[in-house]
Amino acid sequence: MWRLVITRLCVAVPMIVMVSTATFFLGALSPIDPAEFVLGPDPTQEQVDRVRQEMGLDRPVLAQFQEWAAGAVRGDLGSSVFTGEPVSATLIRALPVTLSLTLGGLVLSVLLGLPAGIWAGLRAGRLGDRVTTGLVTVGQAVPNFWLALLLILAFAVHFRIFPAVGYVPISEGVGPWLHSITLPSIALGTAAGAVLARQTRSAIIGVLQQEYIRTALAQGLPRWRVVGKFGLRNAAVPIVTVIAFEVASLFGGSIVVERMFSMRGFGSVTIDAVLRRDPDVIQGVIVIAAAVMIVIQLVLDLSYAWLNPKVRPS
Amino acid sequence: MTAGTRLRRLLAQKATPVAGLFLAAVVLTALLAPLLAPYPPDTGDLLRPSELPSAGHWLGTDSLGRDVLSRLMYGARAALLAALVAVVIAVLIGLPLGLVLGYLGGWPDRIAMRVAEAVNAMPFLLVAITLIAILGPGLIKSMAAVGVIYAVMVLRLVRGEVLAAREELYVTGALVVGNRTGRLLWRHVLPNVAPSLIVQITAMFATGIIVEATLSYLGLGTQPPDASWGNMLADAQASAYDHPFLALPAGFAIMLTVLAFNLFGDGVRDLFAREATGSVLHAAPARRVTQVTERAGGPEPAGEEPLLRVRDLSVSFPTGPGERADVVSGVSFDLGRRRMLGLVGESGSGKSVTAMALLGLVPDPGRVTAATITFDGRELAGASGRELRRIRGREVGVVFQDPLKALNPAFTIGTQLTEPLRVLGGMSAREARARAVELLDLVRIHRAAERLGHYPHQFSGGMAQRVMIAMALSMTPKLLIADEPTTALDVTVQGEVLDLLRDLQAEIGMSVLVITHDQGVVADLADDLMVMYAGELVETGSVRRVFERPRHPYTAGLLASMPRNRPRAGRLPAIPGTVPHPGEAGPGCRFAARCPFVIDRCREAPVELTALGDGAARCLRVAEQLTFDGTEAWTAR
Ligand code: SF4
After folding, report:
1. Which pLDDT does position B418 carry in this prediction?
2. Structural domain includes residue A192
3. Other CB atoms closer than 10 Å to residue A43's CB: what's the count?
4. What pLDDT score does A298 carry?
5. Using alpha carbons only, how large is chain A's radius of gyration in Å?
6. Which residue range or ranges hold the ABC transmembrane type-1 domain (chain A) (predicted)?
7. B284: number of CA atoms within 13 Å, CB side?
8. d(CA B105, CA B115)
9. Total domains present in chain A
10. Strand duo B536-542 + B528-533: pairing
11. Is B44 strand, coil or helix?
12. Cβ-based burial of B338 (10 A; exposed 0-12, middle 13-18, buried ≥19)
């Protein structure tokens, strides 16, 4: 088990280095000059030169990268051109919001998608399956931010049960926190749940066609036992893969949904940074996101090892 | 499959044509928006803001008094254009790159795959936004960024197909001539990659529409005042309190268009690979029907009631809408107590299905009927699933062909062995474990207690098959069905497994039905023999009699192709041709197409199984005492 963790981490470090390097140099290639954004329209050449010098943009790209990397290793990701706030501080403030929504969406999608998918998979080709599959197809087509808007209209504007805007940190109480993330989680989790249901269904169908299911039935085991004890465990590997992939897409999806609920999460930070060309912030966002994804990948690998004895080092 | 049947299948699905028509309407609207739109999209009547639908404005107006319907039509342009840009870029980059990488292999391929993996592991939207940060916002630029990410998906797909094609070409030996490899691959890959690429493209269109709307909503895509479904929703958010209706038109436009793309994609996928949903989990037990043929095929054991008596067992599968074909038709036989009966035939003859039908293990769309299946005095034809389940495991054990597939890879063999002991036998965990150790000892597996904790992949094929046998015997059944017990095994261990089976039968005193295409197995083990061809029994009798004096040309052909009957060097004569597909054998003798003794009369009407004292045969010319001496009959053809 520990060997797996260590191997993974050995892969993780170069991966983060690769991602940050790529972002940095692609950013440097960009035709857009951050200095012009700081100054507003039609600056004089002297102004531009002065700002570029202040921002360190006049130096060779390699030197800029060296400086950034040296800082990054110490945990200093630079600071925003606009607010002057250290990037790490901004991100530490934003991350809990996005992670809360990701988690809420994940929990919801699993609660919806897993039972629906299993149910449909066991009834493949019958009426119940067709109805579920139909609902799933519709669910997949609903853009999450539109659903968010509809939820706001229904439960915040019309019924006033949930807040339309704002995030309450968990430190202010679990109840208020849950209250604030309920609508965004539903908006995020629905499409994700639909995807999960679809994949779970096909995983179940695939497993039921395996010979070892026939063996278990030939042993005289009751159907519920064959499905409940053996089938679900076998279907778990593809399902876990989908869930892990889903975490990434929920993380990305929360960028939009946050915006709809006016929450200051990763999404707002990213979008503001992109619209204002704030290079250090963009860089920081990507590096932290990559780190989060690597952690998720690690959790996924560990659960694989638990589910599938073949990859478990003996 | 021809283009014609494909088209018919496409139309047979109800959803696909509807989705197709809807998409066509969206495309037309987008193209003709300047002509169709009743108002200009970006200038509004400021005196009439936020109106509900009316005769003048079918979908009302937004907060700037702009006509929502007109903006919706122009929004379709933005959506489709955006998706098109992304897809075109994806294919232009991904297709050639995938072909080249798959063809070259080596380190460029490895590096590219690492990058692709990293891109795929990151949140899609975040990567897209980062790329937009580099290219700058705007509809075309942002969708170009999306196209680059899509290209990674296309690349992976195409590369996978190239690798598969390479493999196949090596296997078929087409790749030995090195210099034309490129062209060969090209010819081979494109038709293979086309179906999945088409499905992938429809999926990219669907997500592309959502991504465009998302980016435009965020202000990174279509820039106001240009209309896009995404920024229409941003407007709707701004006026959520005073004009909630605005949220509906653009949202439904996105949803329906995406839905149509997805349904269309599903329809296309269905054309190329139909999802198999049938499962043995839903297997129906045999239905009871009245007997049509009088005579049992097998040798009638004198006196004692047989353990198993089967009459008129048939199994059919659907071949098309409302059509079924028999894969097993009218099989009748008896299996005496402590006897070993061999069932032989080529693959496709229906022998395994016959055995599974006895236990109600024919997968879902299959339908089983029988006049009687009497097992140890109980009637199984017409019995409920629950009654059949009582027989399975407890009274009938099954050994399957490939132990490494038949054993569950995710559980230790200990779990798999003890599960039925505990659930059916009511043993405690400790008792079940002790019994499992006994069972492994019984099948001569050493260090039994330790091996219980091992997973199937830690066993060799021969050892795994012993485990399988132990599982089948765990409840001391009266009948053991061995379905090709040695076929998947290494030649060197086949003999050991057969010896084990023979010894165990003697020890336990059970009856055995052994299914095989290898007459050697039957010769070694069985007392009686049944030969099956295209779903029918064609010859039955004692092993000794059939081996000495086969009566059916097919039996003779099978025997002639046994290595031990041809001691001298030379190629084994095989029966030319293959078993006809169910329902395609024609009205007469099902073997007629491959039979060297065929006469016109053979092809006219079904041939009955004729009883001949010490067995039976299904051949018109059986009375002529045909001689099959030598194998000229087979080699001559
Ligand atoms: S009935 Fe005719 S075709 Fe069929 S096996 Fe006999 S001789 Fe051959």
Report:
1. 93
2. yes
3. 15
4. 79
5. 24
6. 95-304
7. 15
8. 15
9. 1
10. antiparallel
11. coil
12. middle
Q: What are phi and psi of A294, to 5 degrees?
A: -70, -40
Confidence at residue B181, expressed as pLDDT on a 0 to 100 scale: 61
Structure tokens at A188: 């995020």
Smallest Cβ–Cβ distance between A18 and the set B118, B124, B135 belongs to B118
Q: Which residue of A has its CA nearest to B468?
A: A215
- 509-548 in B: which are within 8 Å (CB) of A? none
Q: What is the ipTM of this complex?
A: 0.87
Stretches in chain B below the pLDDT threshold 50: 179, 296-299, 566-570, 631, 635-637
State phi, psi for B243 to the nearest 5 degrees: -145, 65
- pLDDT tens-digit map of A74-105: 777 777 777 778 888 888 888 899 999 999 99
Q: How far apart are CA B106 and CA B102, in angstroms?
A: 9
Which amino acid appears at position A91 of this protein?
L
How far apart CA B56 and CA B39 sit, in angstroms, is: 10
What pLDDT is attached to residue B259?
A: 93
Q: Taken in order A262, A265, A270, A273, is the CA torsion positive or negative?
A: positive
The pLDDT of residue B430: 92
- The rounded Å distance from CA A23 to ligand 1 centre is 76
**Helices A144-151 and B247-272, packing angle to 10 deg:** 140
Residue B349, CA atoms < 13 Å, CB-side half-sphere:
22
Sign of CA dihedral B382, B383, B385, B389: negative
Which CATH number do you get for residue A180?
1.10.3720.10
Q: Find the radius of gyration of the CA atoms of chain B.
A: 34
| C-alpha to C-alpha distance for A229 and A220, rounded to whole angstroms | 14
Residue B91 CA to residue A112 CA, distance in Å, equals 35
- Binding-face residues of B in 191-230 toward A, CB within 8 A: 206, 210, 213-214, 217-220
* Residue ranges making up the domain that contains A294: 95-311
**Candidate from A141, A216, A218 with C-beta closest to B259:** A141
> What share of chain A in percent tops pLDDT 90?
20
Amino acid residing at B523: A
Q: What is the C-alpha separation between B532 and B342, in angstroms, rounded?
A: 10
Q: What is the DSSP letter of B380?
A: -
Residue type, A260: M
In this predicted structure, the answer to whether residue A229 has a pLDDT above a threshold of 60 is yes
Determine, yes or no, domain membership for A99.
yes
**C-alpha–C-alpha distance, residues B630 and B607, integer Å:** 26
Distances (CA, A) of B532 to A282, B77, B340, B349: 71, 64, 17, 6
Ligand 1 lining (C-beta closer than 6 Å): B 553, 589, 591-592, 595, 597-598, 602, 607, 619-621
Kindly state the tokens that stand for B419: 């599960």
Query: What angle, rounded to 10 degrees, do the helices at B3-12 and B247-272 form?
Result: 140
* Number of other residues whose CB lies within 10 A of the CB of residue B223: 13
Residue A166 lies in a domain: yes
Does the residue A246 lie in any domain?
yes
